[in-house]
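Collaborator request, handled under Task 6.
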Amino acid sequence: MKQSHLQMSEKTKSLNKQLHLTLIIQAIGPLLSGNLPVLILVSMSLFTLENHYISLGCCSLLVWTAIINPIAAMIIITPFRKRIKIMLRIDKSESIISTAATSNPETDFNRTISTLKVTDLKIPTVRNNILEPINLF
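Structure tokens returned to the collaborator:
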């Protein structure tokens, strides 16, 4: 294991560390959000304590058990986090998307390869046998 760790690139080491942290949170998260509320509710019933606010809070924590795993992965792992920021338009960095539109060589269409920024995304369309981009935003 130590020899394979020496052969990893820095990016692989970083992603491995992020994955390790995500797996730890995915193991501990459901334990806290699933078992802790049940333990509180059982102890309240054993000691005949009644508090509707604590009972309601514990029951609402049980719902978060299935949500913790994907949220942990989306927040901790950098490529997922960057993609979500781009999708929600939170990240203002100049991300580049490379697109390629090819055509059949037997037709009159030209082969076009273009590089677009996410903020200037265009969809290629065909007008008069010429491939033209259309602005989306």
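The cover message to the collaborator said: "The radius of gyration is 26 Å. The chain has two domains: 2-87, 96-135. Please let us know whether this matches your experimental observations."
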